[in-house]
Amino acid sequence: MTEAAGRLNGKGMSGAALALHLMKLRTFIALFAVLVFFSLAAPNFLSTANLILMSKHVALNALLAIGMTFVIITGGIDLSVGSIVGLCGMVAGGLILNGIDLGFGYTVFFNVPEIILITLAVGVGIGIINGLLITRLNVAPFIATLGSLYVMRGLALLSSDGATFANLVGRPEYGTTGFATLGAGSILGLPLTIWILIAVALAAAYIAGRTPLGRHIFAVGGNERAAGLSGIRVNRVKMFVYMFSGFCAALVGLIISSQLMASHPATGETFELNAIAAAVLGGTSMSGGRGTIGGTIIGAFVIGILSDGLVMMGVSSFWQTVIKGIVIIAAVVVDQAQRKLQQRVVLRQMAGEG
Of 63, 78, 207, 249, which one is least surrounded by beta carbons within 10 A? Predict the structure, then answer.
C-alpha cells in the first residue's frame, strides 16, 4: 500500500468511525433536539411541574419498553403487551369491586397488596403462555403474540361485557381501600410511578449487564443455534423474557387503573407500538443481539416528550401519529445503516491488519 493510499484509507476509516459513533449516540442527539425545540416552541415546557407530569406519562411507556427490549434482544417480539395492560387492569378492578364469587353465596375479597400480586401473576402467566407457544409449539413470535393480543383483549371485554369498572375506591370492611396510592402516591416529592420505573430499570439493567442470564439473552439474540450448542438453555431464556414482558405490562395496567380509579377493557390499545418504538429508537436491534436498558428509557423519553410537546403546541392528534411513524421508520433506517457501517469498519480494520 502506498503512503498516499494509506492516508486516504486512514481518512476513510476515521470518517466512518465518526459516523458510527454519531449513530450510536442518536438517541441522546434526538433527546437533546426535542428538548431544545419544544423549550423554544412551547411556553413553560421546561417547568418543574410539566417535567414531572411528562415523566409520569413516559414511565408507563418506559416500563413496557423495558420488557419489550429483552424480548427484541432475543430476536422476538411481543405484540400482546397492550392487551395485557387492559386485561390486568380489569382483573384488578374486578377484584376490588366484586371479589371472587365462589358460589353458594360466598365471595372472597382480597386486600390491595394481594390484588396487586394476583394481577402481576396474571401478567406473568400470560407471558408463560406466550413463551410456551413459541418454545414448545414453535409458533413464530409475531403470530403467537398477535393471537394473544386478540385473546386477551377479548377476555378483557368479556370480563365486564365491555363496561368500565368505575370508582375503585374499595370498601373498608373488605380491606380493599388504598388502591389510589399506587398511581397517585409520591415519595420525596416524586410520584411513586417514577420510583417504580427506577426500580424496574435498575433491576433490568443489573440482569442485562451483571448476570449470566443477561449474557444468555444477548447470546440467544446474536446466534440462537450457537447459543444452544454452547450449552445455553435457549427455551428457558425465551420463557423468561416473555414472562418479564408480561410482568411489566401487568404493572402498567395496575398503575393506569390506579391513576384513573377505573378500569376500562380498551385500555392499552396501541401501547405495544410505542413500546417497540422506544426500544428501537433507544438502539435495540430488531434483528436481535443488541440493546441497552438505558437507551430504551431515553428512547421512551424521546417518544413521550415528542407526544406531550406536540400536544402543548396544539398539533392535531392525526399529525402526531404521522410524526411518530416517521420517527420509528427513521430509527430503523439508522439502525440498519449502523449495522452495515459497523461491518464495513471491521472489514477495513481486518484488511489493514492483514
Answer: 207
